[in-house]
């Protein structure tokens, strides 16, 4: 099996919703639910725990590190602004073949979708893989780990490429093999927004999670079905727009 490392990028600072990663969702925090869902992936290896929380060295994230330590999550702290360097440090420490980038604002990340993405990435020998046309917030990105360390070593790299970890790879399709597989039909809903970046997103997440029975393992396909059958939920965050670089 290819050596996979899940890296969850998380911090307490946020322009629109500070502290969101430790906000409650049901009886857990958003971060705890993300971890539990990633651990449902067929590529998660509990024995060696191939999942790391990558947070910043800002004082504001001391509480996040404390939470992670208390939950016995592996955690790494690095630059707040140079996020790519933070990832490169994790990769140099663990030395995986493939890094799966996840973010701390996606409590409904779907393990079956992650499995599909990683399998396609390895099978097709891609440099970067992202599953298109799903709700925003249920997926991740697979990227060959050595690419991130190589790119990070370029000291002339523009700030936007440091802030947005995989943006340089995506901006260079002539240099890298990019793969964008289509999802199964029951996960095809690009009009839906299941990330938590604003207060309205959080309100939807709470309402949807409760409607789904507050189950950390609820499949994304069921959440999509619930949103389609309860339009009053889907409109809660309908007006929120994602930042372009994200």
CATH topology tier name: Spore Coat Polysaccharide Biosynthesis Protein SpsA, Chain A
The CATH H-level homologous superfamily: Spore Coat Polysaccharide Biosynthesis Protein SpsA, Chain A
Q: What fraction strand?
A: 5-15%
Strand order of the largest sheet: 5-4-1-6-8-7-9
The biggest beta sheet is recorded as: 7 strands, mixed
Structural class: alpha/beta
- As residue ranges, the low-confidence spans are none
Helicity range of the residues? 25-40%
Q: How many H/I helical runs?
A: 10
CATH architecture: Alpha-Beta Complex
Mean pLDDT: 95
Question: What radius of gyration results from the CA coordinates?
Answer: 17 Å
For the record, what CATH class applies?
Alpha Beta
Instruction: Encode the helix/strand succession as letters.
Output: EEEHEHEHEHEEHHHEHHH
Gap between N and C termini, in Å? 30 Å
Structure overview:
By secondary structure, this protein is an alpha/beta fold. It has one domain (4-234): Alpha-Beta Complex (Spore Coat Polysaccharide Biosynthesis Protein SpsA, Chain A), CATH 3.90.550. 35% of the residues lie in helices and 14% in strands. The chain has 10 helices and 9 strands. The protein has helices spanning 30-38, 62-70, 83-94, 111-123, 145-152, 159-163, 167-170, 199-211, 220-229, 231-234, and strands at 4-9, 24-25, 28-29, 51-56, 74-78, 98-103, 128-129, 141-144, 178-179. A 7-stranded mixed β-sheet has the order 5-4-1-6-8-7-9, sandwiched between helices. The chain has a two-stranded antiparallel sheet with strand order 2-3. Helix 3 crosses helix 5. The longest helix is centred in the middle third of the chain and has 13 residues, at 111-123. It is globular and about 50 Å long. It holds the Pfam family CTP_transf_3. It comes from Bacillus nakamurai. InterPro entries: Cytidylyl_trans (IPR003329), Nucleotide-diphossugar_trans (IPR029044).
């Amino acid at each position: 099996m290819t050596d996979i490392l899940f890296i969850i990028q998380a911090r307490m600072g946020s322009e629109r919703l500070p502290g969101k990663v430790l906000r409650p969702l049901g009886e857990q925090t958003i971060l705890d639910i993300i971890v539990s869902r990633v651990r449902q992936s067929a590529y998660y290896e509990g024995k060696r725990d191939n999942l790391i929380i990558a947070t910043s060295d800002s004082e504001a994230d001391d509480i996040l590190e404390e939470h992670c330590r208390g939950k016995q999550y592996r955690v790494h702290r690095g630059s707040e602004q140079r996020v790519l360097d933070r990832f490169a440090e994790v990769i140099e420490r663990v030395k995986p073949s493939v890094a799966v980038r996840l973010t701390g604002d996606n409590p409904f990340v779907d393990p079956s979708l992650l499995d599909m993405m990683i399998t396609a990435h390895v099978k097709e020998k891609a440099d970067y893989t992202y599953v298109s046309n799903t709700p925003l917030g249920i997926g991740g990105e697979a990227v060959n780990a050595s690419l991130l360390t190589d790119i990070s070593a370029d000291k002339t790299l523009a700030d936007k490429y440091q802030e947005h970890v995989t943006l340089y790879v995506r901006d260079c399709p002539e240099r890298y093999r990019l793969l964008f597989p289509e999802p199964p039909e029951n996960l095809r809903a690009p009009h839906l927004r299941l990330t938590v970046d604003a207060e309205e997103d959080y309100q939807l997440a709470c309402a949807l999670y409760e409607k789904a029975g507050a189950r950390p393992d609820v499949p994304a396909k069921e959440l999509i079905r619930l949103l389609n059958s309860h339009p009053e939920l889907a409109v809660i965050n309908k007006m929120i727009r994602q930042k372009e670089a994200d």
